[in-house]
Amino acid sequence: MRFAVSLLMFICVASLIGTVLQQNQAPGSYIDQFGPFWFAVFDKFSIYHVYNSWWFLLIMAFLVVSTSICLIRNAPKMVRDASSFREYIRGNSLRSFHHRVESASTLAPAESQKRVQQWLTGQGYKFKLRQDGESVLIAAKKGSANRYGYIFAHAAIVVICIGGLLDSELPIRLQVWLGKTPITQNMLISQVPASGRLPAANLSFRANMLVPEGSESSNGIVTVNNGVLVQPLPFALTLKKFSVSYYSTGMPSNFQSDVEVTDLATGKKFDRTIKVNEPLRYRGVTVYQSSFDDGGSKLQMVGYPLAGPNDKPFTVDGTVGKSTEITMGSGAKAGKLEVDLSGLRTINVENLSGNVAPQPKPILAEVASVTGSAAPAKNKDLHNVGPSVQYRIIGRDGQAHEFNNYMLPIKLDDHSVFLAGVRDNPNQNYRYLRIPADADNSVADFMRLRAALYDPVMRAEAAGRFAARNANSGLQQPLLQKAAEGAMEAFSKGGFDAIVEKVPADQREKVLGFAVPMIQLSLTELRDIEHEKAGLPPIQHVGPEGQAANTWIQLALLAMANLPDYPAPVFLALKGFDHVQASVFQVARSPGKNAVYLGCVLLVLGVFSMFYIRDRRIWVWVKPQGQGSEMLAAMTSQRRTLDFQHEFERFKDAIKRLST
Q: pLDDT tens-digit profile of 125-177?
C-alpha cells in the first residue's frame, strides 16, 4: 500500500508538471524559454511530453500492478467481512471490548431479546441470532458498505490508469516495437507500404487529418518519434464548405466544417456540420474540429531581382504547400532557385494607430529602426492590412530563410510602404524591410531605382548631374562627381556599413553626415535618369509633389541601406490568388475514455462510502438470571471518532432503558 501511494503521488507531481508546462511544442520554443542546457536536461527525461514518456507509462503500469495485487489479496476478505455478522463471538470476549455495557433486568429473556431486536431495527441495524443453550447472541451491523468503499476506490485507480494507458501512445508504440515502421520521407498516402500503415481496427489512436475544400480523405496521420504512420478510418470525409469568422483582433472567433460522411463498408452517406466542441461521432471514431489551414491556394506573384542591374520583373505561379522553381539570370550565368511556398494569410489584423512623423534622430538609429517589427508597439487601433504570402528560399548566405511579404501597401508613419519580412527560423520574429510604394501602389519604381544603382553608367551620369547642381565652382565639380560616384558604388555593395567600414569609429558620424545627403541627392538624379530612359513622366520637384518625391527618396534610401540584410536574390510580390481553405481535424478512437468515466464513478462511490458511511457493529448476549435476565453488550467501529462515542452513550442508555 505504501508503494502504491508513493507511485500515486509521483504521478500527481508529473501530471502537475505536464499541466503547467505546455506539452508537445516545437523544440525551439523550449530552447528559447529554458536555454540549451536545461532543454537538454528536460528532454532527457521527456518533460515536454510527460504523459507519453516511458517512465510515466512505466509508473502507471507499476501502479496498476501494485493496486491490482492489493485488491486481489484484500478484496475477498473485505467482502466476507462486510457480509459476515461475526455471530460466532464468545460472550466472555465482549468483556474485553472498551465500549461495553452490562445490565440486569427483571424481564424474561424472551422479552429482553424482543425489545433489543425492536430497538436495533428502529436504528437501521441488520441482525442475526445465535442460540447457545438458554442464551441468545444478537449480532447486528450497520454501514457494511463502508468496506466496499475501499474496494471501489482502489478499483477506480486501476480502471482509470488502464483507461489512461489505452488512450496513450502505448498501443501505437507497441505496434512500432512489433514491426511497424514510421515513414520519414515525403510520399503519397497511396504509396505508403503496409509497414507504415496501422490496422483499421486499431484499438486506440489519435491522429490528424487535413482536408481541403472539395477533397475527400479516409486516412489520419499519427506522429511517432520523427516519422508518421497512416491510420485508415472506417469512413471518408468530404469537406463541402469551411466557414470561419474573426474577432476584431484578427483571431478566429468561430470556425466549422460542412462535411459529407461516407461509410466505406455500406456506402451510406450523410451530411454533418463539425464545430468546435461539437464533434462528429461515428463507428467508434470521434472527429474534432481542431484548426484550419491552407488547402493549396493558387498564387500569382511577380518576381523582382535583387542583385545586379537587372530590373526586369517576371511572373511566378505556384501552389501553397508545394515548391516552384524560378530561373535567375540568363545565358551561362543562369541558375535555378527553388521557392517553397509555405503559406497564405488572407487576413492580417495589425495595430497601426498613432503613426506620427518620426522625430529627428541619428541616421544609424533610423536605419536600425526599419528592421524591427511590422508596426509600432504603441499603436492601439486594429486594421486589416490585407493578404500576405510566406515562402522559404535559400539565401545568398547559403542558408534557408523564411519570408513574409504583404500584398498591399500599409500606411506607417503617414507613408505607404510594402512590408517584406525575413527570419532565420520559425522561433524568431520577422524583421521587416519597408519598401516605399510608388504612385501605382507597387514596388516597381523602387526596384527600377535599385537596378539603376547597380549600373555603373547610370551611377556616373547621376553623379555628374549631382556635381553640376551642387558644385560651388568648376574646379570642385570633378572632385564632387568622383566622391558621389564612389559613395553610390560603396552604398550599392553594402549600405551605410560599406561607407564607414574603414573609417575610425569616432569619425563615422561625421562621414555619414556628409555622405548620406550626397547619396540622397544622387538617388534623386538617378531616379530622374531612370524615368527618362524608361519613357515615364518626369518627376516634379517643386510644390507638394516635390515634397512627396523627396519623402519617397528618403524612404527608398533607408530601404536600400537595409537590402544587404535581406538575404534573398529575389523579391516576390503577391499579385493575386485563388484561395482554397482546408480544415484540420483530429480523429480519435479512445476506448479508455469510457474506462476513465467508469473509474470516476467508482472513485466517487468509494470516497463517499469511506467518508460518509460509518461502520457499526453491536453484539448483545441475553441470558437468563434468576427470574429475570442479564444483558452483556458491546459496540465497535473501524473509526472510533467523537460521533462514535456519542452513539455509544445513546446505545448504553438504550440498553438500560430496555432492561426496565
A: 999 999 988 899 999 999 888 889 989 999 998 999 888 888 888 888 889 88
500-522 b/e with 16+ CB inside 10 Å = b?
beeeeeeebeeebeebbebbebb
- Indicate the burial class of 97 (C-beta count within 10 angstroms; 0-12, 13-18, 19 or more): middle
- Residue showing cell 527600377: 448
Please count the other Cβ atoms lying within 10 Å of the Cβ belonging to residue 41.
12
Pick from 72, 58, 61: which is nearest to 154 by CA? 72
Joined grid coordinates for residue 281: 461521432
Looking at the predicted structure, is the pLDDT value of residue 552 above 60? yes
Write down the H helix ranges in 296-407.
363-369
Instruction: Indicate the SS3 state at residue 161.
Output: helix
The one-character DSSP state at 535 is: T
Closest CA to 284 of 250, 346, 233: 233
Instruction: Give the model confidence (pLDDT) of 283-334 as tens digits.
Output: 999 999 988 888 899 999 999 998 888 878 999 999 998 889 887 766 555 6
Which residues, other chains included, contact 209 with Cβ-Cβ below 8 Å and sequence gap of 6+? Answer: 217, 219, 220, 221, 237, 287, 584, 585, 586, 587
Give the residue-averaged pLDDT of 521-531: 93
CA–CA separation, 332 and 153 (whole Å): 79
388, 406 Cβ separation under 8 angstroms: yes
Q: What is the chain's mean pLDDT, rounded?
A: 86
Q: Determine the longest span between alpha carbons in the chain, in angstroms.
A: 151
**Cα–Cα distance measured from residue 627 to residue 624, given in angstroms and rounded to the nearest whole number:** 8
- The pLDDT tens digits for 354-406 are 433 333 333 333 333 333 334 443 345 677 888 999 999 876 667 889 999 99
| Beta strand 280-282 pairing with 570-578 | unpaired
Q: How far apart are CA 502 and CA 525, in angstroms?
A: 27
Rg (CA), the chain: 41
Q: Which residues, at least 6 apart from 369, have a Cβ–Cβ distance to it below 8 Å? A: 361
| Residue (of 519, 327, 555) closest to 437 by Cα position | 555
Q: Kindly report each contact of residues 181-187 with a partner whose C-beta sits within 8 Å and lies 24 or more positions away, as own/partner.
A: 181/227, 182/224, 182/225, 182/226, 182/227, 182/228, 182/229, 183/227, 183/228, 183/229, 183/230, 184/226, 184/227
CA dihedral sign of residues 305, 307, 308, 309: positive
> 92 exposed, middle or buried (CB, 10 Å; 0-12, 13-18, 19+)?
exposed
In the chain the domains, ranked by start, together with CATH numbers, are 2-78+150-166 (no CATH), 86-143+614-658 (3.30.310.80), 172-295+581-590 (no CATH)
Contact 306, 571 (CB under 8 A): yes
| 8 Å CB contact between 139 and 85 | yes
pLDDT tens-digit series, residues 423-477: 988 878 889 999 999 989 999 999 999 999 999 999 999 999 998 888 876 667 8
Say whether pTM exceeds 0.85. no
Alpha-carbon distance of 128 to 140, in angstroms, equals 6
CA–CA gap between residue 592 and residue 41 (Å, rounded): 32
pLDDT tens-digit series, residues 589-603:
988 888 999 999 999
Cα–Cα distance between 366 and 496 in angstroms, integer? 12
- Taking only the tens place, the pLDDT of each residue in 74-87 is 999 999 988 899 88
Q: Alpha-carbon distance 371 to 365, whole Å?
A: 11
Rounded to 5°, angle at Cα 528 from 527 and 534 = 85
40 pLDDT higher than 90: no
